[in-house]
Every structure is written in structure tokens, then in C-alpha cells.
Specification:
alpha/beta; 6-stranded parallel beta sheet
Length: 226
């Protein structure tokens, strides 16, 4: 154990796995800047190139437990009624969010896939324009994702340079801002999703470039401390 480095997504596993003493010795790496940990953010998925925004805007979101999909569905219905072109690509291990949750009018706007390989996951993310980080304060266990847990969707955003749609209460924890992402609140998800769809390619590229600066800063920070 003396030459072991521990990286955790979920800090509740530290005590049950019997390595609490190493946490107290600052020997655990975390994906965020948490107490007694070294901030290391592994988000390299290969030689990723900045892509232009698709003509039909594509959003990526995961299907998981304890997430609020109502705002997304309501926003999609309004956007569809406005004849705006968009797709929502849903991937997950569980069919928590599926065709059963959307109306017939949205069947062409949502694409659902489950139990996919990492290759297919990465190809889907790479083909998208935005990643929806579906976290809301005081909803289910979501508040853990700004204190003791980390969403893997943020890693995909950093690594594939896909601007995120993220609730403003979680944005600072993931180093996201209006410069590199879209911030929504409990009441305006439709407005933010619409803004993302209508964003022109030049403004979209600016957000990607700012996201690249954030991603690169993680690497520079690690190089500095090692």
C-alpha cells in the first residue's frame, strides 16, 4: 500500500474500503478541489479536435437514477413547437429516462441507447455539440455532486471540448462559467436550451476555446505540482 495512489469519484467509499488513514495523510487524489486531496483531473480521451457546431444541434445527456428530466422534456416540447432543429442523445446503463418519458411528437428528437461500449459512448459524445449536466440543488442526491461526488459528464465536457448546460449552483464546483458553458437555474432551462440551439458557429467556437483553456489549465496545474 505504500506506493499506491487512490483516485475516488465518490468519497463515501473511503471509509468502507479501509483507507481512511491515507485520506488523513493527504494521499488520495480527487477529481475536484476537496479537503485533504490532490486535485487531479484525468480527462484525456485521445487527440480530440475542436469540431464545428452541427447544423442540427445535438445535446448529450446520460440516463441515471435521481435526476430531473422533466425540465428537459418540457423545454423540448416548446422548442419542437417552434420548429427548431435539435436532437437529444441519451446514453445510460439504466433505462430510467426512455421513450416512455416523452410524447409522440418528440420521438424524432430523442435517440436512446443503453449498455453501449466506451467506444460508442465516446463517438456519440464527439458527434454532439453540448453536454447536459443534469443536476439540480435539493433534488434526490444531487447535492452530493458539489461536495463528495463528481459527475463523469464534466470529464466528457473537458475532454471532448463540449460546452455544458449546467445549473448555476454547480457551475463553480466544476470550474464552469458563462464563458465556457451555459448556466441555467430552476426556472429557465427552456431559455438556456433555446439559446444554445440558436448560438452561431463563431460564438460556439469561442465557448469551445474557453473550455480548452480550462481543460489545459488542469494539465498545467498538475505539471506544476509534480
Amino acid at each position: 500500500m505504500n506506493n499506491t495512489i487512490f483516485v475516488f469519484h465518490h468519497f463515501e467509499f473511503i471509509k468502507p474500503t479501509g483507507i481512511e488513514s491515507y485520506y488523513n495523510q493527504n494521499r488520495i487524489w480527487s477529481l475536484g478541489n476537496l479537503k485533504n486531496t490532490l486535485y487531479v483531473n484525468p480527462h484525456y480521451f485521445g487527440d480530440i479536435k475542436i469540431r464545428n457546431k452541427n447544423n442540427i444541434t445535438k445535446f448529450f445527456i446520460t440516463s441515471n437514477f435521481y435526476k430531473n428530466y422533466n425540465d428537459l422534456v418540457l423545454a423540448a416540447e416548446k422548442l419542437n413547437n417552434e420548429n427548431l432543429d435539435f436532437e437529444v442523445m441519451v446514453i445510460g446503463k439504466r433505462e430510467t429516462f426512455s421513450n416512455k418519458n416523452i410524447t409522440e411528437s418528440l420521438k424524432n428528437n430523442f435517440k436512446f441507447k443503453y449498455h453501449v461500449s466506451f467506444r460508442e459512448l465516446y463517438e456519440t459524445v464527439d458527434s454532439s455539440d453540448y453536454i447536459i449536466i443534469n443536476l439540480y440543488p435539493n433534488y434526490g442526491n444531487n447535492d452530493q455532486f458539489k461536495s463528495t461526488r463528481f459527475t463523469g459528464s464534466s470529464q466528457l465536457s473537458y475532454g471532448f471540448l463540449k460546452p455544458a448546460l449546467i445549473h448555476q449552483d454547480f457551475a463553480e464546483f466544476y470550474n464552469m462559467s458563462s464563458e465556457n458553458s451555459f448556466l441555467f437555474n430552476n426556472f429557465n432551462f427552456y431559455d438556456i436550451m433555446r439559446e444554445a440551439i440558436l448560438l452561431n458557429k463563431q460564438k460556439y467556437k469561442e465557448k469551445q476555446e474557453n473550455l480548452y483553456k480550462l481543460s489545459d489549465s488542469f494539465i498545467k496545474f498538475l505539471c506544476k505540482i509534480l
